From TrEMBL:
Residue list for modification N6-(pyridoxal phosphate)lysine: K201
Name of the featured protein: (S)-ureidoglycine--glyoxylate transaminase
Swiss-Prot/TrEMBL keywords: Aminotransferase, Pyridoxal phosphate, Transferase
Binding site for substrate: R349
Protein's organism: Nitrospira tepida
Origin: domain of life: Bacteria
Cofactor(s) this protein cannot do without: pyridoxal 5'-phosphate
InterPro entries: Aminotrans_V_dom, PyrdxlP-dep_Trfase, PyrdxlP-dep_Trfase_major, PyrdxlP-dep_Trfase_small, SP_NH2Trfase/AEP_transaminase
Length: 404
């Protein structure tokens, strides 16, 4: 058989403004290129300790069990549930998008009984309905919700749910894949028992790790299991023995280079400061939405529940949503996301996450969109879109001294 000549990697530059991954800082890319050492090397174990400390700061937690799982955010989701849920356990799940649906599916695969509390895609879970379902469902092992629903751009208020779970004696599980380091998240203050995220969103690290933190309350529930965890690879009791400073027992070969990258991305997050980072995401989202409004494109969620880092916007019916996305990528090198599930073909999901959240990217996207929509006669005065965003930046500079 003749061998196929495969050359060096060569691909066009992209501006990543979709639902993930986000752009990566040069310091993180340099960290990825550092020499690989053994995952049990004392120098690497020090790096693990440092990464844990940084994760605790970003999660706002003192949880001893705080680490980075080998796998993407979906691995974090599955790991939390497969460790906490046993056959027959009742779990109330907030379902208002694709990832709430996925939570319910995994609960059922664990042998648990998923009790969905549904809301229309584009709206948050109603707290009163959630409370009613918990009250009438008898003993509930856990309540699981998505903080930032990536499929709809909706933010879920967590603090009252944490109090509700504690009163009901249920564990509180939170999906923070898109929200971590992009909007306020306080694991300890909000009484969250298990929280997982992903590296490729607002942390602006390549995909491949899932930061996870688990409370002592949840760990106690895991220790009381009557059956073994159904996953060997994701078994927290085994993984903890590797990450715990006094044990360091081999479980699997840790992704050394990805840990380097995560450590550096967390350093960047904390150098900027979480409040400043949150304000930056809010500012660029406001500017983007102001520009899109000029083009006749409006957000799906209501203002008080919108995500700043993932803007889910309705595409007017006359616009070829898939064709515009393809042209954005082919002509301008800009990636945005389409809709999922019931929103397929109806929305764009525009990510302004971490390193992707800059004025330059917002203005470039609005200029490119304006050019495409104008050429196809779907928009008039497209140049006014970028001008509307620039006005938001100017006002922010005058009022708050925020630098775009």
């Amino acid at each position: 058989m003749a061998s196929t000549a495969i050359g060096e990697l060569n691909f066009p530059a992209r501006v990543l403004l979709g639902p993930g991954p986000s752009l990566v800082h040069p310091r993180v890319l340099r960290a990825l290129g550092m020499p690989v050492i053994g995952h049990l090397d004392p120098s690497f174990l020090t790096i693990l300790n440092e990464t844990q400390a940084l994760l605790r700061e970003v999660f706002h937690t003192n949880n001893r069990f705080t680490l980075a799982l080998s796998g993407t955010g979906s691995a974090g989701m599955e790991a939390v549930l497969v460790n906490l849920i046993e056959p027959g356990d009742a779990v109330v799940v907030g379902v208002n998008g694709l990832f709430g649906t996925r939570l319910a599916t995994i609960v059922e695969r664990c042998g648990g009984k998923a009790l969905p509390v549904e809301a229309p895609w584009g709206q948050p879970i109603d707290l009163q309905v959630l409370q009613e379902v918990i009250s009438r469902s008898g003993p509930v092992k856990a309540v699981a919700v998505v903080h930032a629903e990536t499929s709809t751009g909706v933010r879920q208020d967590l603090e009252p749910i944490g109090r509700l779970c504690r009163e009901a004696g249920a564990l509180f599980v939170v999906d923070a894949v898109t929200s971590l380091a992009g909007m306020p998240l306080d694991v300890d203050a909000w009484l969250i028992d298990a929280c997982y995220s992903g590296t490729q969103k607002c942390l602006s690290c390549p995909p491949g790790l899932s930061p996870v933190t688990v409370s002592e309350r949840a760990l106690a529930a895991i220790r009381r299991r009557h059956t073994a965890c159904r996953s060997w690879y994701l078994d927290f009791s085994l993984i903890a023995d590797y990450w715990e400073d006094q044990k360091r027992l081999y479980h699997h070969t840790a992704p050394v280079s990805m840990i380097y990258a995560l450590r550096e991305s967390l350093r960047l997050v904390l150098e900027e400061g979480l409040p400043a980072r949150f304000a930056r995401h809010e500012l660029h989202s406001r500017a983007l939405l102001a520009g899109l409004a000029v083009l006749g494109i409006t957000p799906l969620p209501a203002p008080d529940v919108r995500l700043p880092m993932l803007n889910c916007v309705l595409v007017p019916r006359e616009i070829d949503e898939g064709g515009v996305r393809a042209e954005l990528l082919d002509r301008f090198g800009i990636e945005i996301g389409g809709g999922l599930g019931t929103l397929k073909g109806l929305v764009w999901r525009i990510g302004l996450m971490g390193e992707s959240a800059t004025a330059g990217n917002v203005l470039a996207l609005l200029t490119a969109l304006g050019a495409i929509l104008s050429r196809r006669r779907w928009a008039r005065h497209p140049e006014q879109a970028a001008a509307a965003a620039a006005a938001v930046y100017a006002e922010a500079g005058r009022e708050n001294g925020i630098t775009p």
